[in-house]
């Protein structure tokens, strides 16, 4: 990240963490969030690659999905969990158990899972 970007973040009062090295790992920044700010949990609102990165490091313990009656099967539609060329290994499967399910009117479902 260039110094100008860091200055802009400071100017706006936006907190940030920097991870150094050739490979990006989320475990260290998550540990810093806990030790520096006391943050124990975050709500991950990412796209497929962000979700895939957290899943790859087994940093997801709960999963909340909303399912609606709309299907788009084009190849350009992102999935919930994706990998990119920067992943050295495919994401190993994470097992979840369905904890709660609610109907969302008119035709949706809210599914809440907890990691086994």
Task: Pick out its properties.
single chain; 116 residues; alpha+beta; 3-stranded antiparallel beta sheet; 20% strand
Write the layout of secondary structure elements.
Elements: H1 3-12, H2 27-37, H3 48-56, E1 62-67, E2 96-104, E3 108-115
Antiparallel strand pairs: 1-3, 2-3
What does this protein look like?
By secondary structure, this protein is an alpha+beta fold. The chain has helices at 3-12, 27-37, 48-56, and strands at 62-67, 96-104, 108-115. The termini are far apart. The chain is 26% helix and 20% strand. Strands 1-3-2 form a three-stranded antiparallel β-sheet, with no helix packed on it. The protein is globular, with a radius of gyration of 17 Å. The longest helix has 11 residues, at 27-37.
Structural class call reads: alpha+beta
Q: Outline the low-pLDDT stretches.
A: none
The quaternary organization reads as single chain
Range of strand content: 15-25%
> What is the strand arrangement across the widest sheet?
1-3-2
CA-based shape: globular
State the major sheet. 3 strands, antiparallel
Helix content bin? 25-40%
The span between the termini is 37 Å
Count of DSSP strands: 3
Q: What is the CA-based Rg, rounded? A: 17 Å
- Order of H and E elements: HHHEEE
Give the mean pLDDT.
83
Count, helices:
3
In short:
This protein is of the alpha+beta class and 116 residues long.
